[in-house]
Structures are given as structure tokens and as C-alpha cells.
Design brief:
The complex is a heterodimer. Chain A has two domains: about 30-120, Alpha-helical ferredoxin (Fumarate Reductase Iron-sulfur Protein, Chain B, domain 2); about 130-190, no CATH class. Helices cover about 50% and strands about 0% of the residues of chain A. Chain A has helices spanning about 30-40, 55-60, 70-75, 80-85, 90, 100, 110-120, 130-145, 150-160, 170-180, 195-205. In chain A, α8 runs antiparallel to α9 (about 150-160) and α8 packs antiparallel against α11 (about 195-205). The longest helix of chain A has 17 residues, at about 130-145. The model of chain A is unreliable at about 1-10 and about 205-210 (pLDDT under 50). By secondary structure, chain B is an alpha/beta fold. Chain B has a four-stranded parallel β-sheet with strand order 2-1-3-4, sandwiched between helices. In chain B, β1, α1 (about 15-30) and β2 form a beta-alpha-beta unit. Classes of the chains: A mainly alpha, B alpha/beta. At the A-B interface, α6, α7, α8, α9 and α10 of A face α2, α3, α5, α10 and α11 of B.
């Protein structure tokens, strides 16, 4: 056993033992063919990233991500989609555009994150941030129905599906709802786009994104 | 009287009713005629671009096609709607292969539509000069404001076409011209977490707490914004976030149009301010604004 080192973070003793060499099974086998496919499908030149990490240093939400944004790009370059399937990063991204704005090679990371989300949902894969996915899907369901968002229905539907309508959150949510109603900021009758034929055409494909 | 096309967006019909009313009130006072797009649809917001790129593009395309039939520019008060419409226009200039036949049939002149964020439109030198002329001489120097622009109106510059995207100045200039004590700060375009307030409020609380900390450290007594998502996230949960911070926070979050309402002496201004969760009453009273602007808040 190694001796504790004074002043180490959290008072924990870092291991001084030699790290084990990764087994051949753990080693990444780069698959470059996949990068070309992703670039063609998403329109994002992910191959142009040379790993300066400006995206990740500027990201306001990286504290909540399990992979830094540059790691997402790197795994894509190496063809390691399985590394991204269980990652929270693409769901935590708020699309604030800071990364793209500062990227020296203008790699459109927000678009890449969106493309991965759409691909995962299309494959019917469970998302590590189920609530984020659910909110987006309910939102789109409302748009497909009316052409506009009806916030009251969206929030009620979301709470019913996530337990916010019954659990300990229910009182807090009800109180906020009442306050918003009192302030005249809760609409009770939904607005609609009158012409809705095109909505049927747009959302008719059995696409994961359109059906919650 | 200038006439512009106007895309209010879904939030302005409900949670951001205060913003909608103040936009209409201020534009009327400045003789700007807002022509609402007939039968507009939702821009798709975060949901569409996250899960369904084709839907996001089509939702934007239809609105742009409608805008092409009306006066120019298309003015958009919501930063996210603005970003979605400007992004759609940008992508449509490359081609419309993803557009469905029903919307193609509208024969939209996408490239011809100029999409402008409302706070940019109202902080142009001409409008500022006009607002100064019509101002009723209200002393607003007791409002010590930091201007909070948020992200979607600024970035990415390839889409927004803005030069000062890291340090925007429009609202700072407008409010200074109206006599507000505008305080510079480095968090003008930092993210508030946007729609994560529903599924991951913890993330929004962390980001908003940082904004409060910095605004207070700069000596601000209010935050002025031109984005209804920023307003909602900073206004609706202030009590709860302050509790988590273990700090007293009192920072009313005003729309820039509401401040314009005060400067222009628009009678309805208190009606807009009354819809906020963090009441601006204490702020306006302390800033020595006339009693009728705050007594009923």
C-alpha cells in the first residue's frame, strides 16, 4: 500500500502503484469509415478537430457532463459510437453555441450533438437523461398537433409522466402554476395555427422525434 | 411610420405576456407598426433541433415564406425564435431538399427575408434618437442595471452576423441614452440553461446563481434582458435559488421594453411589471420613480 501524501485533494491518498496496462480488449480500434458517414449525414466536419479543447473550456455546462465536448468529437473520429450511447453529454448540451463560436476550425458541435440525439432516438435507444428526451418529445407532439406550443398542456403532460403531478414535487408545482395563473402568465385556451395540413405531411413519418 | 413584419412566438402568448404587451406598447409609442405574420407556427425551439432536424428546418421555412410576403425586416422579440429562424434562413440558402412539398408550394424567397432581433431593431441609432426625443424626462439613474443578452441572439456569428457577439452593446447604449445607470459586466452572453428549467432545474439554478453573484458584485440592483427565456429563468425561481445560495438576493428582472415604457411615460407600464414574480416595487420606490409606477405592484 502506498503512503498517504499530505495535502492531497480531499485528504485521499493517491495510489503510487503503477497503473495496469490496458488489456487488448480495452484498447480502442479506430474505425475511420464511420467518421465519413457521420460527416456526410450531419454536415459537420468533425474530422477537422485537432483537440485544442477550447470548446470544453468555454462550455458552461461541462461541469454536468460525463464526457467533455471535445471527447465526443474524438470518439466520433475514432468510430466509437458505443462510447456515446450511454453518455449524458449530448443531452446536457443547451446549444448555447459558445463552442462553435470559439472553435478555430468551426466544427459545429451543437449540430453534432443534435445529430447524435436524433440518431439515438431513431434507434430507440434509452437516453441517460430520460427527462430531457421526454420533454423534447412532448413539446414536438404538441407542435405536431396544433402548430404552436400550449405550455399548460406541455407542463401537465410532463408532470404526469415524471411523477411531478403526485409526488412531493406536486405541491410546489401546483403553487407555481397558481402564481403564474394569478399573474396572467398561464394561458388556458391553446392557440393554433389554422392551416394544419402541412403538419400532417411533416410529422407523418414514423420518426422517434415526433412520437412521445 | 415604419412598418415591419413581426413574429411573436409561442411564449409571448403565455408566460411572456408581459414582454408581448410591453413590445406592443413601446412600438405604438414610437410609431412602429408591427405586422404580425398571418397564421405563423412555432419555431420548434430546442425540441425540434434536438430530435428532428427536418422538422426544425420546415417549421422555420414556413414562417420565412410567410414573412417574404410582408414588409421587411422580420422582427423577432424571442432570442430562441430569432436564432431558429435565422438558422433556417442560413441553411435554406444552401438548398431546400429537406423541405416538404406543401411548404415548397408557398414559393418562399428565403434569402430575401431579413431576420432581426427586436433588441437590435430598437437599439439602432435612429430608434434611440427617437426614443430620447419622446422620453418624458423621467430620472432613471436610480436603476443600476446590468444588461443580459443571453446566447441565442448573439451566437454563432456566422448565423447572427453580429460583430460584437462576445460583448454586445445595443441594450447598453439604448438604456444609457434613456438615463439608466448601466453597469458593464462580463456575463452579458453567458447561458442561463434555457429549457433545462423543466427537466434539469438543478443545472439552471447553478448557472443563474453565477449570474446573480456577478450582478450583485458589480453593484447592480436589477437585470435588464431582451430574452423571455432568460427573464423566466432569472425571475421565476429567484427565491429558491437565493435560498440555495444562502444569500439575500433581490434583483428584479426587467425587459428592456418595460424600462423604455418608464422612460416614455407609458401609462400601462405598471400593468406589465405586475406580472413579474420578483416584484419591481421596492426597486422603483428606492430609485425614486413616480408613485403611480409602483404603488399597485
Amino acid at each position: 500500500m502506498s503512503q498517504p501524501i499530505a495535502g492531497a485533494p480531499n485528504g485521499e491518498s493517491p495510489s503510487l502503484e503503477r497503473p495496469q496496462a490496458p488489456s487488448p480488449e480495452q484498447a480502442i480500434r479506430p474505425d475511420g469509415r464511420w467518421l465519413a458517414q457521420v460527416q456526410a449525414a450531419s454536415g459537420v466536419s468533425a474530422g477537422a478537430c485537432y483537440g485544442c479543447k477550447k470548446c470544453s473550456n468555454g462550455c458552461p455546462l461541462s461541469f454536468a457532463m460525463d464526457l467533455h465536448p471535445y471527447q465526443v468529437v474524438r470518439y466520433l473520429q475514432l468510430g466509437q459510437m458505443d462510447k456515446l450511447e450511454g453518455s449524458s453529454t449530448v443531452w446536457i448540451c443547451a446549444s448555447c453555441q459558445t463552442c462553435l463560436t470559439r472553435c478555430p476550425n468551426q466544427v459545429d458541435l451543437p449540430r453534432l450533438m443534435d445529430w447524435i440525439k436524433e440518431e439515438l432516438v431513431r434507434r430507440g435507444q434509452a437516453a441517460p437523461e430520460e427527462k430531457v428526451r421526454l420533454f423534447h418529445q412532448l413539446f414536438l407532439k404538441g407542435v405536431a398537433k396544433r402548430g404552436r406550443v400550449f405550455e399548460g398542456e406541455l407542463m401537465a403532460g410532463y408532470m404526469l409522466k415524471t411523477g411531478g403531478a403526485f409526488g412531493p414535487e406536486a405541491i410546489k408545482n401546483a403553487r407555481m402554476g397558481l402564481t403564474m395563473l394569478k399573474k396572467g402568465r398561464l394561458k388556458l385556451i391553446p392557440a393554433r395555427t389554422k392551416d394544419r395540413r402541412w403538419l400532417k405531411a411533416l410529422f407523418s413519418e414514423p420518426k422517434g422525434g415526433s412520437h412521445a | 411610420m415604419p412598418e415591419v413584419s413581426y413574429y411573436p412566438g409561442c411564449s409571448l402568448e403565455a408566460t411572456a405576456k408581459d414582454y408581448a404587451e410591453s413590445v406592443e406598447g413601446v412600438c405604438e409609442a414610437l410609431d412602429i407598426k408591427l405586422r404580425e405574420l398571418p397564421d405563423w407556427n412555432c419555431c420548434g425551439a430546442s425540441a425540434a433541433h434536438s430530435l428532428d432536424h427536418k422538422a426544425a428546418l420546415n417549421l422555420g421555412a414556413r414562417n420565412l415564406a410567410l414573412a417574404g410576403r410582408g414588409p421587411s425586416p422580420l422582427v423577432v422579440p424571442c432570442a430562441l425564435c430569432y436564432n431558429r429562424l435565422a438558422s433556417a434562413r442560413h441553411e435554406l440558402m444552401e438548398g431546400d431538399e429537406l423541405i416538404i412539398d406543401e411548404i415548397k408550394a408557398m414559393r418562399g424567397d428565403y434569402a430575401g427575408v431579413q431576420v432581426v432581433e427586436l433588441n437590435d431593431y430598437l437599439s439602432s441609432p435612429q430608434v434611440i434618437a427617437q426614443a430620447r426625443q419622446k422620453a418624458v424626462g423621467q430620472d432613471l439613474s436610480g436603476l443600476k442595471a446590468v444588461c443580459y443578452y443571453g446566447c441565442q441572439g448573439q451566437r454563432p456569428p456566422a448565423i447572427t452576423g453580429k460583430a460584437d457577439y462576445e460583448n454586445p452593446q445595443g441594450l447598453d447604449r439604448l438604456l444609457s441614452a434613456l438615463g439608466v445607470t448601466v453597469i458593464d459586466w462580463p456575463f452579458k452572453t453567458d447561458c442561463c440553461g434555457a429549457s433545462h428549467s423543466v427537466a434539469r432545474p438543478d443545472l439552471v439554478f447553478t448557472l443563474v446563481a453565477r449570474l446573480y453573484e456577478r450582478a450583485l458584485a458589480q453593484g447592480a440592483n436589477c437585470i435588464v434582458t431582451g430574452c423571455q427565456m432568460c427573464q423566466a429563468n432569472l425571475d421565476m425561481y429567484q427565491e429558491e435559488i437565493a435560498k440555495q445560495m444562502g444569500k439575500d438576493v433581490y434583483l428584479p428582472v426587467l425587459y428592456f421594453t418595460e424600462v423604455m415604457g418608464l422612460a416614455l411615460g407609458i401609462d400601462e407600464t405598471p400593468k406589465w411589471l405586475k406580472r413579474h414574480l420578483v416584484s419591481p416595487k421596492g426597486l422603483l420606490e428606492k430609485a425614486q420613480l413616480p408613485r403611480q409606477t409602483w404603488e399597485r405592484l
